[in-house]
Amino acid sequence: MIYKFSNTELSINSASSVYDNPIVRLVNPSTAEIVVTLSVNSTVNVASFTILANSEMVVEKTNTYRVQANGVLASPVAYRG
Fold first, then answer.
1. Which of 21, 35, 53, 63 could crosslink 76 through cysteines, CB 3.0-4.6 Å?
2. Counted domains in the chain
3. pLDDT digits (tens, 9 = 90+) for 51-73
């Protein structure tokens, strides 16, 4: 898979829409599993999932959804399979 990065990487310790991008690459550089939360705003959670230690994943979300996960890095991407 080829990723096209469209902006700078963010640390998402606080909720972020990651530049309103619908596809986001998440990286967990720590040695612990971390729960990632998607929300409509700061109070309405839509989904949550765990990203494994020392791993990465790509998620698709609505552009306005916010992503939050302490210690996780996020980059807005497009991809070609």
1. 21
2. 1
3. 999 999 999 999 989 999 999 99
